[in-house]
Write a structure and sequence with these properties.
Belongs to the RecO family. The protein has seven helices and nine strands. With about 250 residues, the chain is α+β, with helices and mostly antiparallel strands. The chain starts with a strand and ends in a 5-residue tail after the last helix.
Length: about 250
Amino acid sequence: MLYRLEGIVIRAMDYGETNKIITLCTQTHGKIGVLVRGAKKLKSRHSSLTEPFTHGIFTFFRGGSGLGTLNDGEIYESNHKLREDLVLAAHGSYACELIDRALQDEDTGSFWFEQLLAFLTGMREGKDPEVMMRLFEMKMLQASGYGPELEICSASQRPVEGDAWISPRLGGVLSTPFRAADSYAVPVSARALSLLRVFAKLDLRRLGNVDVKPDTKAELKMVMNALMQEHIGMNLKSKRFLDQLDKYGFDK
């Protein structure tokens, strides 16, 4: 069967001496693997279609549920500027790897396609990749059924105001008097909690330019790391690389 799908390349791997296999996050058919014959040849007309973050139309033959074989393609946006920037490429790779690991083949992928497209577009337009990444992680948690409760204390069931604690184990916020409900809870300032609440209600397509102070960004990263580790538990190579960039001061 011949398919013609809009998609984004989230992974590419060599296959044999001259071929590549790409994984697409598509708008209508979830995640699909496609064999691109001759993609590693110098004069290949399809090599540019196999680059990570490439957004376009991919036309391929596919029988059953196996790999497709690329016939042709049209690039809407190559996102080459993202690949050429170490920090942007690292954030893009992390977002793509999250989707690759979380999205099953043939899952309905429209939501993830739109979020990833907005994420890559936002980075290309100069929006803060760290802020967008925290929002992307929040969407990942919510779509997986683990979105945290950020308004009501998980212990007292009362509204939370001011500085508080985030309990990944309980899946929500704790007011300071009830911090003992989870000895592993993570502290969160009123400012960071307010941003987390915005993230819970917003998707990436509506995010504007947000100016977040470095200490608040560090808080957000600590909280989201704890939530992601508790509920998603993915040991991703791209995440480890991002952490190394942060450690040595590149991810600023």
